[in-house]
Amino acid sequence: MFEEDKEFGTRRSLITGMGVAATGLAIGAAAPAAAQQSAASFQPRRHDEDAWLNDLGRHHRVFIDSARPEGGMEAVHYADNILNAHKSAYGGADEDYGMIVCFRRFSTPLGYNDAVWEKYGAAISNRLKFVDPRSGEPFTANPLNLEGRRDLPSMGARIDAVAERGVKFAVCMNATRGISMMLAGATGGSADDIFEELTSSGVANARFIPAGVMMTTRAQEYGYSLLYSGL
To answer: What was the pLDDT predicted at 28?
Structure first.
């Protein structure tokens, strides 16, 4: 009797296990379908603050993200290269592109104009440990507006020149708030006053955005290809 009970127990465990396995197979088969349905039904929520993203680019959209000064300078070079290649290889026009360069985190000061760099360049360069490689001194103008500087990561590409071709610049407001506090500590000024000064002193085609990291994700919801520049 003991052997029969043991055998029955073994068979019952086997059958139960087969039932669980079959159930697992059914769930596994249904999971991809459910995932596909969920993906198909996903629609990103639109916000008025992001509507400007949909105004750019008739045929192509690119968002070039950067978080360090060297990367920000490369980003402008990349934007210039993309537009040049589109024109020379495809016979395209600059107007075909919605091109946004994002300056966030440590590349954020590249979104400020020459007046800001003339006034705060020493403090900014010292904080970022980013100085003119020719002189070893802090920049006193936005390094992306210096002409003929192919020794810089921008390879001579300048903000003013690419802005004339329609490139837009997204400048992180969160980082700007932090920079204003840093500059206030370095100069003895008011962080709020400096913040207002910085946000009213953007480069050509600049738009101050709430957070660069967030805008990087929002741009992809509007069909922008993402290109990251820098380490």
So the answer is: 53
Is 8 strand, coil or helix? helix
Alpha-carbon gap, residue 48 to 51, rounded angstroms:
5
Strand partners, 170: 102, 207
pLDDT (0 to 100) of residue 42: 86
Indicate if 54 and 72 belong to the same structural domain: yes
d(CA 68, CA 53): 23
**Spatial CB neighbours of 215, under 8 Å, sequence gap ≥ 6:** 50, 102, 170, 209
The per-residue pLDDT for 231 is 66
How many domains does the chain contain in total? 2
> Which CA distances in Å does 184 have to 113, 118, 131, 178, 190?
18, 16, 21, 10, 6
Calpha distance 127→201 (Å, rounded) = 20
Q: What is the CA radius of gyration of the chain?
A: 27
Q: Which domain holds residue 34?
A: 1-42
User: Is the whole model's pTM more than 0.90, yes or no?
Assistant: no
Contacts of 140 (CB under 8 A, 6+ apart): 117, 118, 121, 122
